[in-house]
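Thread: "does anyone have the structure for this chain?"

Original post by V.I.:
We have the sequence but no experimental structure in hand. Need at least a predicted one for the grant figures.
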Amino acid sequence: MLLAGQKVVVLAEDMYEDLELWYPVLRLREEGAEVVIAGTGSSISYTGLKGYPLTVDATVDQVSAQEVDAVVVPGGYAPDKLRRYPDVLRLVREVYEQGKVVAAICHAPWVLVSAGILKGKRVTCFYAIADDVRNAGADRVDAEVVRDGNIITSRQPSDLGAFCREIIGALTERK
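Reply from O.Q.:
Generated one for you, tokens below.
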């Protein structure tokens, strides 16, 4: 169990991309991490783009950056909702500032833009938000996974294998 003793929070809101939430949750749990799915507080349950429901373990305001080793932000249209919540932005920013892993896939770099942590970073994302990422001061490249310091990004569901390998690798280095 590579990640035994590590805690990861995965953010959730309505219209999350089902695979981009569940694949990392299951893969990280498989490696022994404690994974907490945290919602914004707008509901206790959320529905993915493909209709898959989930009930969260906590709300973001109940999660402290000091208690976690990483935060994972799945894509879909949920990031556009997630970034409207100050507690989401606070958590992402604090995890980043503490040098812990911040991982975002597809549309999820929108949350990193709103948290103000992308300036000068090399990242990737879904092509439709490339301008937003560049306008936030990041160097956007087209690659299945990009790691710049403690920020890990990927483009889309087909990149999930590489995305999760990079997250696991980064968390293993932190041990």
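V.I.: this helps a lot. The first strand starts at residue 7 and ends at 12.
O.Q.: and The chain is about 35% helix and 25% strand.
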